[in-house]
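pls read this protein:
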Amino acid sequence: MKKRFSWLLIGLAVAALGGCKPAPANDKLAWQFEVGEDRVETEAPDAGQYSPTYTVNLKIVGGEETVLFNGTVKLKSNTMWGSEFLKAAVTEKALAQEGIDLGFVTTIGDYVNNAEENIYWMYTINGQTPDWGVNGYQMRDNDYMLWTYGVVDFSKPPVVAERETGDWAFEVGADAVTGEAEGATQYSPTYTVNLKIVGGDNTVLYNGKVTWKSSTMWGSEFLKAAVTDKALAQEGIDMGFVTTIGDYVNNAEENIYWLYKINGRTPDWGINGYQMRDGDYMLWTYEAVVF
């Protein structure tokens, strides 16, 4: 999945200024394991001056509950794939590894997948099993990644873990769109995202849900589906730096721009390079930015 970092430098500046502090932490959720003392700090080979730095809580548990790593991985990267964090931790511990770069982990340390006994390495992010291999799943700052080695019962339904919430969880309206991306297959997941688009003078252009089947789940797919359904003018969505929605166009002279947040935070990429998760809240606002 190719990232697009060609959006304008001003887009980066606007995104940075549009950030906000996370909501106060709720009581500890079941998937928030006790983070140990292991520490790794590194950066990807292609990381640059504007690459963000995320810290992920990572725990790796082998057979017989043997803890191979428990702590944090701090990474500077343009992509933030889960494989980057896992590989940094495994490499730091000098553990044998196989399959991390390919997205299907077969070996960590002395523990190797065993198809005859249905023993595999499996992982969850914030208590849920991702729909992609670890090399195709985009991490978020302060995520909890848990790897376990054990018997897998493929007949069990997937676990739906409790999500963190905050003031960013706006009241969702009645608008609804359902569709699928070009190239989606029978194995592509289907996510529902809560989306609100607010133009000038607090004019609500869209407020509701977008249910989308896709192999990538870029934010641009959800936004474009909603804007298209409402027959609104649009520009820049596919490029990742939105300049027009409806009658509202970015105005550099007055520093008025389209900005977006996911679950109350401003992402570090354009909307075409940010991977959505089921149940996310995406808010777009047209507003003045103070530099």
